[in-house]
Design a protein that fits this description.
The complex is a heterotrimer.
Chain A lengths: L2 E14 L2 E14 L3 E5 L6 H8 L9 E9 L2 E2 L5 H10 L1 E4 L3 H4 L6 H13 L3 H14 L5 H4 L9 H13 L5 E5 L7 H18 L2 E6 L2 H7 L2 E6 L2 E7 H6 L4 H10 L37 H5 L5 E4 L2 E3 L10
Parallel strand pairs in A: 3-8, 3-9, 6-7, 7-8
Antiparallel strand pairs in A: 1-2, 1-4, 4-5, 9-10, 10-12, 11-12
Chain B lengths: L1 H10 L3 H23 L30 H37 L1 H16 L2 H11 L4 H28 L2 H9 L3 H37 L10 H9 L7 H28 L7
Helix pairs in contact in B: 1-10, 2-3, 2-10, 3-4, 3-6, 3-8, 4-6, 5-6, 6-8, 8-9, 8-10, 9-10
Chain C lengths: L5 E12 L8 E13 L4 E5 L6 H8 L7 E6 L2 E2 H7 L1 H7 E4 L13 H11 L8 H11 L16 H13 L5 E5 L7 H18 L2 E6 L2 H7 L2 E6 L2 E7 H6 L4 H9 L7 H4 L29 H5 L5 E3 L2 E3 L4 H6 L1
Parallel strand pairs in C: 3-8, 3-9, 6-7, 7-8
Antiparallel strand pairs in C: 1-2, 1-4, 4-5, 9-10, 10-12, 11-12
Classes of the chains: A alpha/beta, B mainly alpha, C alpha/beta.
Chain lengths: ~325, ~280, ~325
């Protein structure tokens, strides 16, 4: 199966008063049709930047993509003229965000907003678009869709708004859905519903999903492949089973231990000492070295390249493949 | 000290604001030192009336033969003094009203804001005239009148700032420590509200100068002092034969107000952390 | 038998929403008959989702919001009277740490002055000793004296939260209410702050009311857990007992819905909880949870269940015994 999405060497810089910040550096990965890939990281990891940069959603005044290619269905999104890019966005790539109010316009009914991409991309009539919108609302398990369709976003609860946003993103049956922290702002029980919904829909429609999140447990729920990011770079990549069962990169290992909230014998939770390096003060060499218990001299001097430990499982660490300390 | 340095670095990124500041400094120096260096009394008739700018009278004389340059320099003092004092008065009063209304909310807020609205519904210039008419026109009453019509906008801004901050967690933390309302308002929230207030206050200086000019143009200001507005008023009748007479003080007003506005904008950009500039 | 350091009885808080000239304002019932005990040196976790009233509870306990009804005793002294008559002493005994470290510090005050504010207000030390005291507090929360003259915007989220904790500790409280203290922080930092809080508790014997929405987290660090739904406690008991199983249908649903590495949702719960939390403006009659409860019967809508003891904990459900059996 050919790759649906191929990102090569993507780098993004944000100019600030104190100089340029490299939010994302040399980021590459691939996705196949129907695959679910998760980009995991904490603040400053560059995961959100990557998601936004993919579809050129970072405004010119805020950040610049300084290098790289984003091959989507055979075309470089970064080089596309704006008119063609608009065709792709919404029609071939759908996006959902953490805050549904970012995507929903408070002064239009949800029916109108759902129907808009259908009219635009498919040229459906008012009537046909409205019917399809009701159908979509039903697909995302919103009760009584014929009534809801004429309501405004503020009439809906947070969970329902999120579902409407999912419906909007999937309205044109895109081949790729980018979900940027889709459940972070939701209550746990609502999160469970939304995750279940995303799983069902992606299976039904065969949509590939790129999930951006900091929540490893959510990744475990729905992702097939995982990419772990730290301080703007990819540090580990592999199937969910590989990365969760046998993490190769020390950061991934520590992150998994911390995320499990499993206290050790002394009642203390496993912690990672220190903090993420400031983008103005990036250490040369491996960015995790200052916090890494297994750091060597070479780690502080040279950026480690990605090394495979098994087919499809690689980590950017010099210790990959050697005996686990 | 480092805060000041950091502030200046941000401020100087706006070239127009720096130019404005430079001009304002010139105006201030002229106002402070001008009449000392050039002691001619602006009311003295020292030359032939309506004479154009010449070697003897750099800016010419007005219809009564008074030295225009002297008028300009003395007028600068008056305009700036009234402008700054009125702005200060309006800011102080507006801040107190807005802070109390914003912080306490509910009934206090409603009462104070209705009073503020009352002042806002009456055209400020007319209200100023009424106030001056009640008392004798003098520098003091003019300043008071201008302050009295300018404070509502400060009150609104201060109220908005205090409303925004009173529910922030740091204020809640102070309340949870048992801090008194007075201390929270003055030592905790006020420093955060100050930047916006400073900007409005500086812009108020400009509008006060304009208002004062308008009042003295109409002859309603203190008759014992020369101000720019008065000079414009006097020179208005001879605009077509001696254009410099209204034009020179008019340009002075224009330039001063312009540079105050530029400085105000520069302050806004430098002090407001949320504004991002490329 | 030690005396509880905090004893809450029947706490009730309602907010009036919207007042027209002709219509009576709606009542938002944020807290409804909340009672619990907190013992010295222990951690009571309060867990729930949005609208359950946990934040309102935090603010009422810290003296920031007045209660509509009910009372709570701090070290034996009636809380509400305490706040009224001797506010400073009350606030010395009861401190709070908030969720958002970015908003919890005055952006225009240095770390030193923010903490010194607390010391000065309660006259904890002499002026000359202030700097040393603040430095000592910073060390206790894992920060060095370098941070004294920094401003909040120069600190990371985790560092700010440490400063907030230092400020709360400055007055030597007996009880610390932690309102989602780590929810806004990265996972790797969460553990640091929690471990810090546990260390401080061990050293100083402070009792914590730890509010969170993360059930997986609180099970690890609390002695007792209270689960709240729509303003009421639906289950409360020792964490060790609740480790094995929860009895209230909502607690079970909450636990099953929490994603856990190593297990899939479909295995933990056959059907995810449907519907949304009802509005606190018009809570359902009888048991508040009945509209979403898979086991609801007619009795649930007619008769409001009381908190009763079942299997070593208190549960607010008519069918708690059946839950513990099956």
């Amino acid at each position: 199966m050919s790759a649906l999405l191929q990102v090569e060497g993507l780098s993004v810089r944000f100019p600030t008063t104190r100089g340029d910040v490299a939010a994302l550096e040399d980021f590459s990965f691939e996705m196949r049709e129907g695959e679910t890939v998760a980009l995991v990281g904490e603040s400053g990891s560059g995961k959100s930047t990557a998601a936004l940069a993919l579809s050129r959603l970072i405004p010119e005044s805020t950040g610049r993509v300084i290098s790289g290619r984003v091959m989507f269905e055979g075309r470089d999104l970064l080089a596309l003229p704006v008119h063609d890019l608009r065709e792709v966005r919404g029609r071939r790539i759908g996006m959902i965000f953490q805050d549904p109010m970012m995507a929903l316009n408070p002064v239009f009914t949800i029916g109108w907003q759902l129907a808009e991409p259908l009219r635009q991309h498919f040229g459906l009539s008012q009537r046909a678009a409205r019917d399809r919108a009701v159908e979509l609302l039903g697909q995302v398990a919103i009760p009584a869709p014929e009534q809801r369709i004429d309501q405004y976003p503020h009439n809906l609860s947070g969970g329902m708004r999120q579902r409407v946003m999912i419906a909007m993103a999937l309205a044109c049956r895109p081949s790729l859905l980018i979900a940027d922290e889709p459940t972070t702002a939701l209550d746990v029980t609502v999160q469970a519903q939304v995750l279940s919904l995303i799983k069902t829909l992606k299976d039904e429609l065969g949509t590939a999903v790129l999930l951006i999140t900091h929540d490893l447990a959510v990744v475990w729920e729905i992702a097939q492949r995982v990419i772990v990011m730290y301080a703007g770079r990819k540090v580990e990549e592999g199937t969910a089973a590989d990365v969760f069962d046998d993490p190769q990169h020390p950061y991934a290992r520590e992150l998994l231990r911390a995320a499990a909230f499993a206290s050790g014998g002394d009642g203390r939770l496993p912690e990672i000492p220190g903090t993420v390096p400031s983008p103005f003060d990036m250490p040369p060499g491996c960015r995790f070295a200052p916090r890494c218990a297994s750091a060597r001299e070479i780690c502080r001097a040279v950026l480690p390249p990605l090394k495979s430990s098994a087919p499809g499982h690689a980590a950017a660490c010099v210790l990959v493949g050697s005996a686990v300390p | 000290m480092t805060a000041l340095v950091a502030f200046w670095r941000k401020y100087r990124r706006n070239r127009a604001a720096v130019a404005g500041l430079a001009m304002l400094v010139v105006v201030l120096l002229a106002a402070i030192f001008g009449p000392l260096v050039y002691p001619t009394d602006p009311f003295d008739m020292v030359g032939r009336p309506s004479s154009p700018p010449s070697a003897r009278f750099v800016l010419g004389t007005d219809v009564s033969g008074r030295d225009m340059l002297a008028g300009l320099l003395h007028g600068a003092r008056v305009s700036l003094m009234i402008g700054i004092l009125a702005s200060l008065g309006a800011t102080l009063f507006g801040l107190i009203v807005g802070a109390i209304a914003g912080y306490y909310g509910r009934a206090v807020d409603t009462i104070l804001m209705r009073c503020t609205d009352f002042f806002l519904t009456i055209p400020s210039f007319i209200l100023a005239i009424v106030i001056i008419a009640i008392f004798r026109p003098s520098v003091a009453t003019v300043t008071l009148a201008i302050a009295a019509v300018s404070w509502p906008q400060v009150a609104r801004l201060a109220r908005a700032e205090f409303i925004a901050h009173r529910d922030r967690e740091y204020v809640l933390a102070c309340r949870a420590l048992g801090m008194s309302d007075f201390e929270i308002i003055t030592r905790q929230i006020l420093p955060n509200a100050l930047p916006s207030l400073l900007v409005v206050s500086s812009l108020l200086v400009a509008t006060s100068i304009l208002t004062e000019s308008g009042l003295s143009f109409l002859g309603l200001s203190d008759p014992n002092v020369i101000s720019w507005g008065y000079m414009v008023g006097v020179g208005r009748t001879v605009l077509r034969v001696a254009w410099w007479m209204p034009a020179i003080p008019g340009i002075a007003i224009l330039l001063t107000v312009l540079c105050i506005n530029l400085v105000g904008e520069g302050l806004n950009e430098a002090l407001n952390p949320r504004l991002q500039r490329r | 038998m030690t005396e509880p350091i905090l004893a809450a009885r029947g706490l009730r808080k309602s907010f009036s929403i919207g007042s027209g000239w002709f219509a009576a304002p709606d009542q938002l019932h944020a807290l409804n008959d909340v009672s619990f005990d907190l013992y010295p040196g222990e951690t009571l976790a309060v867990v729930g989702e949005s609208g359950c009233g946990k934040s309102t509870l935090a603010r009422c306990l810290a003296g920031l919001t007045d209660l509509t009804a009910g009372s709570f005793a701090v070290a034996g002294a009636d809380g509400r009277a305490f706040i009224r008559d001797d506010a400073l002493r009350f606030h010395r005994a009861m401190q709070i740490v908030f969720q958002d470290p970015y908003a919890s510090l005055n952006p225009r005050r240095t770390v030193r002055r923010s903490i010194a504010d607390a010391l000065r207000l309660h006259r904890m030390c002499k002026r000359e000793e202030e700097r040393a005291r603040v430095t000592d507090l910073l060390l206790q929360v894992g920060l060095s004296a370098d941070y004294l003259d920094r401003y909040p915007h120069e600190l990371s989220g985790g560092q700010r939260q440490r400063v907030c904790i230092a400020r709360a500790l400055a007055v030597e409280p007996k009880i610390l209410v932690c309102d989602e203290p780590v929810s806004a922080l990265d996972v790797s930092i969460q553990a640091q702050i929690i471990n810090l809080l546990k260390d401080i508790q061990r050293r100083r014997g402070i009792a914590y009311v730890f509010i969170s929405h993360n059930l997986a987290l609180v099970r690890q660090i609390s002695d007792r857990i209270a689960v709240m739904y729509l303003g009421e406690i639906v289950e409360i008991g020792a964490a060790a007992a609740m480790q094995r199983t929860f009895l209230h249908p909502y607690s079970r649903a909450l636990f099953a819905a929490t994603p856990v590495i190593g297990s899939r949702q479909e295995d933990r719960m056959r059907v995810p909880l449907t519907g949304d939390v009802p509005s606190p403006l018009h809570p359902p009659s009888g048991c508040h949870f009945r509209t979403r409860c898979p086991f609801a019967t007619a009795r649930c809508s007619e008769e409001k269940p009381a908190l009763r003891e079942v299997s070593g904990r208190l549960v607010r459900c008519h069918f708690a015994e059946a839950m513990s059996a099956g």
